Amino acid sequence: MEELYEMEELYEILNELQPGVDYETADDLVDGHVLHSLTILALVAELEDSFDITIPAVEIIPENFNSAAAMGNMIERLQKGDWQ
Amino acid sequence: MTLSALLYGGKVDQLTSFFSLEFLAIFFPAALLLYGVVPKKCKPYVLLAESYVFVWLISGKLIVFLLLATLLIHYCGLWLDRLQINMRQALAEGESDARKVIRAHFTAKQRGVIALAVVLLIGTLLALKYSAFFAGNVNTLLSLFPVTLRLQVPQHLLPIGISFFTLQALSYILDVYRGTTKADDNLPRLALFLAFFPQIVEGPICRYHQTANALWNAGSIRFENLTQGLQRILFGMLKKIVIADRLDPLVKTVFSNHEAYDGAVIAVAAVCYTIQLYMDFSGAMDAVVGIAQIIGVSMPENFSRPFFSKTISEFWMRWHITLGTWFKDYVFYPITASKGMKKLTKRSRKTLGNHYGPLAAGSVALFCVWFCNGLWHGAAWNYLFFGMYHFVLILGGSLLTPVVRWLQRVLRIDPEQWWYRTLQMLRTTVLVIIGELFFRAHGLLAGLQMFERLLTDFSLQPLTDETWVDLGVDRYDLWIVAITLLLILFVSVYNEKGVSLRDHLSKKKRIFRWAVLYALIVYIVVFGAYGFGYAPVDPLYAQF
Predict the structure, then answer these.
(1) Which CATH class is domain A2-79?
(2) Is the ipTM of this complex over 0.85?
């Protein structure tokens, strides 16, 4: 249940930063130029605040931001203190 | 081949062009034949030897820079790997309260190794490529003061591809440090990753995980790969020989003697140069991808139909993609993800909101990216101006985004409507062409003068047949360029829609496929700009 709550919160954050995208299905947010560098900066700051994590530069790669699911996985990893 | 290669070291710079007779008729078939006939276990070594012969023939003894860079990153990579293993061991054995100290100790050591590699690699590049620019500018400054002291302006020869293999070498060592790539103890594999002959001239700038193992394990030449690869090379040849080289006389004439021409001619030359650069560079990339495809290796694409971009920011995601992602991964995000910048982003988001907040840290990082991007292209003020021009356009675009969205709402404009997207593409193209004018100009002053002429001395009157002939082209040239551009536009429109005409063609009957291929060859042979009356044109990006 914890994970579901996080995903809902993640969808909220994404919709606030960049509305008009179906984040439940989109899987090319970076590769498809939906999220730009500056939006990702805001997203990184918001994710760090909301989920109490630190996202190092090495984690800011398209694979971790192309979909909400990938972001969820990254958050989970970082919450466990497991860097790439 | 080996003996003659030794004799001709540094004397065959025609090989930098994949469409030169020397490359296409001699080096490439010989290299392919040799690669094809040796046993599988020898293939990577043959590929490496061929790559070194290629660099030797173009750069001669300057090959030593490539060899030293390879040895340096191999050694530093293994050093980092050893430190990381030691750190994990110490963390596993150490008390939990000592872990922070252990991590800090080993991180500092690893950073020392990174600093060594960066200083040596970037230092070499700076010394060879930028010392003359630096000394020249210092001397200009000194001349303003009553001192006789002057720096000697060094004139260094540049080894082929140094700007490309330096970035590629840095990406490997930084990825090992970050833990995203494992250090390679196989020196020849790492050497092949850096030196692979088609890619060393103009890129693409590959990451270790993209090509190192693929090149090392590349197998026999399969018929399907051979035909697909040759098709791609032919398409690149069409761009380079029929369009880029045909426009070269006009571009050269106007840019070398810009004072003699008014705004309309300068505008035409700027448009032609933009087309020439795109066709030249993307044509060379088609050749690189095609050659790699023949041996079954997939190279990263460097272009994705950039002139369909709606903004400058999008343009740079589609043009010279591997350089853009390099700067994004190793300059932009490390700066914005640093502690100080994150604090700045968090603070500014509270006061300026989600859009303008990240711009504070983002603009610092963006400035660094475009400063480096401009300087990477060359040691001259017009390249720096080119970088700053795009920095201002991208930052300005981000600043204006909320205003534009508001206007779209108020004026009830759907941004997805075809006419609106077309206008956005046209605006982006015009801005790109202006940037390329400064990029190609003989110095910043010349660029500014040409731009001024565009605004103050513009009339369509000089564009008569006589002017074209004076500029080195005639009506026949322009028709050929226009028709070929339409052909490429046709292919690009389909690609943009996600339809691959090549895949479509491969499903057709053999006779049809070969007919298309032969038609393309005949078209290039008949309409290519080569032979009598045409000087061979060096690849434009090889000089960077």
Answers:
(1) mainly alpha
(2) no
